[in-house]
């Protein structure tokens, strides 16, 4: 038997917009809608026209999508009004969207308490509203709100609601776990029972993640027969979020039994856009991508233990469940105190250094990494610093500038308005091509002040750093007491979109920060091909690890 078509419905722009702290602009919505269309999503729910100015403006000038069917969201007509005399329903029907998804009650408890009407009247609301959408020439979808709770409380009434929508012409009847509290075994059982009344190729699933089971529940529903899956990018949504399409899509496309029983509109080439699309949403929301996210996170295919790395280099399937390239991700070989020579060689290869495994410098570099990690460094999260350490050992990093001295002053004082403020001032003295340059800078903290002063004038290197930005700064105290050793991790980026991490360790937090900052600047200068300032003798690594 051939595979059945499974349709993907994205509600990032509607249900995802209900996430605490998320506020999409109209342009944000258009950007994300086009990205979803390029990914191969079948339905893009753009929002609820008439519910707020942003959604109304979005639907007033809808984007021209190539594949996805733009869908407007709304609710069934209100009690006491006809479908043609309900402004909310009319607003949904009169948009430029080709489909309309209406939410209605299917739990008798909600009908009685929230709506205060009879069960029969609720069924009429559903049928009238779906019929109105169909008569407008648009595709009709019915979201059966609280369906699983409603089915378990009163299965006969819940099924009546579904069949009313089905008979009125709804293309899809979507079973919603609105409270997110149902578990996979119950979802699978109930969906199988529902298919006796509504065919599976007319059923969809919409799950919330309040028990961390939204993806599992969606997969269970597919096994039971539904042929539409709803979800959001990165699982955003109200409360604990929605089913994460970024996890669902590759599982449906690449994993048995789903790849054998259903097919989606996601091509192999489009699947490679999954990681960039996931990260695009994070960029729009101005937040860092979750590095531990399944499939698309930077750690999803990261290998740290020497035993793992050795096996992965022989055959990646030893420790990888799918090829990272299939979803637009890539493999990362980490270096740490748990590393072996395989880690070092793999990481050197990733940064473009081809070294013979028998080269004695490999073992010495491994010893140096372990020695440094013993005193507090952590290179598995600071690969830019590791790259500089390795390249310096191989005489590949020029000396761009020397820091003669720096000074930081933190002062609490009253400003001209009489407000008590704290200001950091830094003075940095550097040498470039034999010329001493001294710069001063202010900042809202010592590191910010040092960064400002250092980049204020780096001579011939200043233009290389014009787009350099520090995006994150993490401090960890490694030992207790006032003389504690501190590790600082700095994340940087520039207009290329690359993000890199550098590390510094010292009993003095400013020293540790400055070392990480210098590594960040040096990484950018090296990557961008900046010319050397002076000839430099390679740093000689110790032949044995020292404590």
Helix vs. strand class: alpha/beta
Number of helices: 19
> How many β-strand runs?
18
- What is the CATH C-level name of the largest domain? Alpha Beta
How does the major sheet shape up? 8 strands, parallel, barrel
For the largest sheet, list the strands in their spatial order. Answer: 2-3-4-5-6-7-8-9
Q: Helicity range of the residues?
A: 25-40%
**How many domains?**
3
Question: What is the first-to-last residue Cα distance?
Answer: 65 Å
Rg = 29 Å
How would you sum up this structure in a few lines?
The chain has 547 residues and is an alpha/beta fold. It contains 19 helices and 18 strands. 37% of the residues lie in helices and 21% in strands.
